[in-house]
Amino acid sequence: MSDYIQQQGATATHSRREERKIIFASSLGTVFEWYDFFLYGALAAVISKQFFAGVNDTTAFIFALMAFAAGFLVRPFGALVFGRLGDMIGRKYTFLITIVLMGLSTFAVGLLPTYASIGIAAPIILVVLRMLQGLALGGEYGGAATYVAEHAPPGKRGFHTGFIQSTATLGLLLSLIVVLGSRYVSGDQFETWGWRLPFLLSIVLLGISTWIRMSMHESPAFVKMKAQGKVSKSPIRESFTSWPNLKVVLTALFSINAGQAVTFYTAQFYVLFFMTQMLKMDPAQANTLLIISVVIGAPFFVFFGWLSDRIGRKPILMLGLLLATLCYFPMFKALSYYANPQIDAASRQSPIVVSADPQGCTFQFDPVGKARFDSPCDKVKTFLVKQGLPYSSVAATGSDVSVSIGERTISGFDEAAMRSAIEQAGYPAKADPAQVNQAMVVLLIVAMILIATMTYGPLAAVMVELFPTRIRYTSMSLPYHIGNGWFGGFLPTVSFALVVYTGDIFYGLWYPVLITGVSLVVGIFCLKETKDVDIDKV
Question: What pTM was computed for the model?
Fold first, then answer.
């Protein structure tokens, strides 16, 4: 009881300086943890070559994205494990454990031998390390958001937790900056050994984060609950077997978390894949433009958190989902026009059409590296995918494959003839950096980030306010990490596979658009406003 009285006294005399210290300490550790997690996404193209060299190029990249998604797959399980610990032993010690697990797993990736050295063991170990990262992050976010919200004064929860929301973007920004620095340091050796530097640096960030978190105090709401003897003995059972609470969990998942997840990963991951893989932009230029966009957009996570304290959480969240649903297709088509005007013009003036019997064509994905794509249709589509060229397919039952490139038609698989026709039609091998309209590319990415900040900025406050203190960590962590781990984490993999399957570089956008549309409808009818609720309720 004395701990509770002491904590109450400290809470009553909280100064603005102490509030800033709590936000800074919580946010900085979370930035480093997101940095660790996002490194893999920033280096997916390199990792596909280092760890999945035993399959064709298209499959290797999809496998690299699947390994990226593996970390997201296990995040809900991390939410259950660490959420339970957070509700039983406290917020502080739980997310101290998560930062150590994350940092060591990331450091180990930097030491991992490649496929060329140890064969199939390399990608297996890589996936295991990614899953350990996912488990750690599954416990991190709920702890940080809960900790900051439970320290925040009334009327400022959205503003204070907005800093936690910005940590994911800042972690991504830090990872991109370190990757660019590593490219500069290692030069043409980046794909040989330079890619390891960002992972190895994580051991320094781990030391800083651990030291910071050791100095933090437990949240006042948890101390009060513990002093009153009301700590939950079974947070998982109370969270998910009681229908009133389970109903709130499901509402949180399908109304805001799933939709928010795809807006975040569309704006800050899929857009990078789109620019480098589909539009063939120079990776350094694409990363630089993304960094500029992130710097411009990051403060709006805090802004929309603050604004939700004034006008409510729900209006901002729903507007963000609406804009995502309506604007993604025109935004990405505009991005194609401004980032690679040559391929945009060529695809409109000289579209590529593959006509073939569907029975002779297969999906260009080889899970074990043993399949042989020997039919003329398979060879044509494999060639087009490797060149990053948009095409459409026409079913021609009983006919041999033919490729129309503008006014020229090529029968069968004739690589030399296709290369000649592609060059004549004006399709570039890569985007010309000099022709990239950098200002418009940044403007479009910033617009996507602003949509993401509208759905993400108020999210932590909403999630904390939806659930009682005794099961808050567990209840909020699971829907958040199912939304972000499964709906969001699989976005690059699913969207890229859809593009490969159809040949339409915009077809992958149907995945985020359908999810934001469903979340918008569920949110309008099922989500309640929460900004004025009492979060100290046990």
Answer: 0.82
